[in-house]
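User: Some background: our group keeps a shared notebook of sequences we're curious about, and every so often someone picks one and asks for a predicted structure to add to the entry. Today it's my turn. The entry only has the sequence so far, pasted here. Could you supply the structure so I can complete it?
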Amino acid sequence: MLALVLAGKLLLRPARPAVPPPVRVAKSSTAPATAARLFVNVVGAVRRPGLYRLKDGSRVADVVTRAGGPTPKAQIELLNLAARVADGEQIVVPRRGLAVPAAGATGGSAAVGPVHLNSATLEQLDALPGVGPVTAQKILDYRQQHGAFGSVDELDAISGIGPARLEDLRGLVAP
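Assistant: Of course. Here's the predicted structure to add to the notebook entry:
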């Protein structure tokens, strides 16, 4: 009789489901990583100048907003607010009444203030005395490979810029 009861329980026991339970999968290493971060220095006519950490792909408008927005003395129309910012770049928000070079101006116009090595364009570098387009491109390549310039003395590492040229540029450029 005991055997009949055990046999009945085994036969009447519910069958195992045909579908196995779900398997937990760890996040894939191919999943998109968090957005890269970059650091941008904002100076000039903004409410809170300083160093800001932003997402890669941020625009000049984002940086100015993070810095509290422009002051009433800012000449914001001289900035390209749609331009993307790069890591290590310095954004200068100009003040009204200060002379600034026209965008894309080369030779013939007197530069106001130093050319910033970490944000200068090829045209701005090419306009420096003794720096032609080839050397200007070498400066951009060096910046791309080694990151932001920490000092003007790093220009010595670029072929075509020796001690004499470095001294000529020292008062005209800044990191």
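Suggested note for the entry: The CA atoms of residues 31 and 107 lie 49 Å apart. Confidence is low (pLDDT under 50) at residues 99-111.
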